[in-house]
Design a protein that fits this description.
8% strand; 358 residues; alpha+beta; single chain
């Protein structure tokens, strides 16, 4: 009996790691969501303008994470069909302080915080979905830190290092003299890797459901912004696309990197080429953050709408039409966040388990 219990526990752990690995880089696709809105809230506070509700969100395993200025709330469906609710306060210095108003720097700091928060939420949700007895939302574990590092390494390796190496190989075997042509080849490979990666993981069963919860997150936020009632029957009528989706950030980052690499030149030595690509990632990320922020503020402009169309098109790969239970999770998480937003301070509600339909 003891061995059977240990085997079941080991199987749950292995499945947890498999799921977390499959969706690890998904945190990169959503890291910009909450960071952009938190910065905007801090900017308005400094200008003494009436504060609106600013949010961020992402899909997690069998649930949805929502964040505002004060708290992050997560709603995860357990195997019994119940919604497990949890909240944590957000870092006041990052989400409501001066750092949220420093151009370029704010993007890097907040994107990192959003990446860490999102990855830790993925770990928490996998525990709830698999009924792990040792659920921990403190996120200080080695597993949490390790998954963040793996997510970054996979993103940098797939979308920056590998395309640079392949383009250098093509340049070498073809005798290509034009560095501009080599950079264009590298850019095409980057875009193909990005779209191809998202397309491939979309066939995984766990990720299919994750994308369904991503659609639920977008529908819930779109319904709230429209002033609609937050009930599944109403929320389901709204779009699964949203202009501030973090997917747009990664696409912007890749496209912008192509342009900047053309301007900064292309080292001939492979090691210098790879180091230059890695070294420029963070400055480019800061610029991409500002571009997404600007386009989000001016999305009513017809030129901006035309520019962001590829971002919205890419969301067709990262979202699915959610079912009723997925919408319930998105609504429950957002309603928890709204309590603190309306109070203008941190109001942590106790953890709860909600029956389906509550």
């Amino acid at each position: 009996m003891l061995n059977q219990g240990l085997n079941r526990r080991m199987a749950r752990r292995l499945k947890r790691l498999r799921i977390a690995f499959e969706v690890g880089t998904y945190a990169l696709l959503n890291a910009a969501d909450g960071a952009l809105d938190a910065e905007e809230a801090a900017s308005q506070a400094e200008d003494d303008k009436p504060l609106q509700f600013f949010y961020g969100g992402q899909a997690v395993i069998e649930g949805v994470l929502m964040r505002g200025q004060y708290v992050a709330a997560i709603a995860v469906r357990n195997p019994q069909g119940e919604l497990v609710m949890h909240e944590e306060p957000l870092n006041a210095a990052l989400y409501r302080g001066r750092i949220a108003r420093l151009p370029f720097v704010r993007g890097l700091v907040m994107l990192w915080d959003a990446l860490v928060l999102g990855t830790r939420a993925l770990l928490y949700s996998s525990d709830v979905a698999l009924e792990d007895e040792e659920i921990d939302f403190s996120f200080e574990s080695i597993a949490g830190v390790g998954l963040v590092i793996i997510s970054l390494a996979m993103g940098i390796g797939l979308f920056f290092v590998l395309p640079a190496a392949v383009s250098a190989f093509i340049k070498e075997i073809t005798g290509l003299d034009s560095k501009l042509a080599a950079n264009i080849i590298e850019g095409v490979i980057k875009l193909a890797m990005l779209v191809g990666y998202i397309w491939v993981i979309g066939f995984m069963e766990d990720v299919k459901r994750l994308f369904g919860y991503h659609g639920a997150e977008h529908k819930t936020i779109n319904a709230y912004e429209a002033g609609a009632d937050l009930v599944p029957e109403t929320v389901t009528r709204y779009s699964i696309q949203h202009p501030r989706c973090g997917t747009a950030f990664l696409l912007t980052l890749v496209v912008l990197s192509v342009l900047i690499h053309i301007l900064t030149g292309r080292p001939d030595e492979l090691i210098l080429l790879l180091l230059s690509r890695i070294g420029l990632i963070f400055p480019i990320a800061g610029i991409a953050y500002e571009i997404i922020r600007f386009s989000g503020k001016h999305q009513d402009n017809p030129v901006i709408r035309a520019i962001i169309k590829p971002n919205l098109a890419l969301q067709r790969l990262t979202t699915r039409q959610p079912d009723h239970s997925m919408l319930e999770a998105g609504i429950a998480a957002l309603e928890r966040v709204l309590v603190s937003e309306r109070a203008g301070r941190v109001v942590l509600q106790p953890d709860a388990v909600l029956q389906a339909g509550d």
